[in-house]
C-alpha cells in the first residue's frame, strides 16, 4: 500500500461501504417498539454520549460480536463525535475465543459460557454510566448459515437471552445471521484505492472500489453497490462466495458434501493427502475419516486437478482488481505464517506465486517430510487457485495484516456504526 497512514483516516468510512445494503434492507423494517432498555434504565437516560459535560467532543460506544465459523470475536468500539463531523474511531478493544457457535449446534446451552466471558470484557471496557445506552449486537456469518435452520435458531435464541439480561442496550434485531453480501469490507482512500480479500472457514469475500466504468457495467448487478454518505457517493464491488471458505472447500476437495445425510459415508479419500495418511477431521459437527490415495500420480498435479474442478466457474474474475493494492486477511494470513513467509504478529507481504511455489514444494514432499498439518498441501493449492480464479496473476503482491492502525480488520466496524445510527433515527 503506497500510503498506509491514510487507512486509519478512512477506516470508518471504508468499513461502511459494503455493509450499507444490509442496513437498508434490515433496519429499514425495524420499528421503534423493538427497543429494549436494560434493567433500571429510563427513556430519559437514553442519550448517546458518556458522562462528560456537554461539549464539542462526545463519545459513543458500541459492542459487536462476530460469530464466525471457527470462533467468536468481540469488538468494543469507542467513537469520537466532534462538531457534527463524521465519527472517528477513538479506540477498539478486541478479544476472540474458540470454537465458533456452530460447534454447540447439538447443545446450545454450552455456548453461553463463552458469550458471558466476552460480555465481561465489554463491562470492563465501557464505563458503567453508559452501559444502558451502549448497543450490543451479534452477527453470525458463514458457520451458522451452513447449519440446519432450527439448530442455528436455538443457538441465537440462547445468545439473545443473555443479551436481554445484560446491562447493555438490546433490541429484537440484536442477534441475527448476516447475508453473505454483508461481509465485504474496504479500507483506504480515494487515491490509491485499497481492496480486501478475506478467506474464512465457510465463505470468502472480495471488495474494492472500482475505478473503471467497464467493471461496473460488466459485473453482475448484485456485485455493485452505490450509495450516498457524508455528502459523497460511493460505488463498491463486493461479493461473498458462500461455501468457498477454506474449511468448506476442504470438504468439497476431499469429496464430501455439506450437511451429509445420516447414514452416509464419512470416509473421504483424496490425492491431496500423503499417500499413507489416515486420520480424522471434524467439520460442521461431523467427524470424517480422511485418507490419502495410494502412491501414483504426483500429489501436486493430482490435487491441482481436484481443486480446479471444485472452483470451476464458481468465482468471477475482476480484471481491474489486479492493478489495485489489496489487503488479505484470515486464512490467507494464517497459511503465510505457517510457511514462515511473514511474522505472526507483524504480518508482511506475499505474492500469489509464493502460495503456488509453496504448494508445489509441500505437496511434492508429503511422503518424505510430512508437514505439521496433513491439510497444508490441500490448503495451499486451494488458495493459489482461488486467487488466480479471482483474477490475480502470479506476480500480484498482497499486504497481509491482522490490523490496520491498531484496528482489527473486519466488517464489524461499519456494522456497529450503522447500528448506532439506526438507533438515532428512531
UniProtKB/TrEMBL annotation:
Its EC number is 3.6.1.6. ATP binds at residues 201-205. One of its GO terms (molecular function) is nucleoside diphosphate phosphatase activity. The keyword Cytoplasm does not apply. InterPro entries: GDA1_CD39_NTPase. The keyword Nucleotide-binding applies. GO terms for cellular component: Golgi apparatus. It holds the Pfam family GDA1_CD39. Coiled coil: none annotated. Keywords: ATP-binding, Hydrolase, Nucleotide-binding. It is an enzyme of class 3 (hydrolase). The active site is at residue 183. Belongs to the GDA1/CD39 NTPase family. This is nucleoside diphosphate phosphatase. It comes from Labrus bergylta.
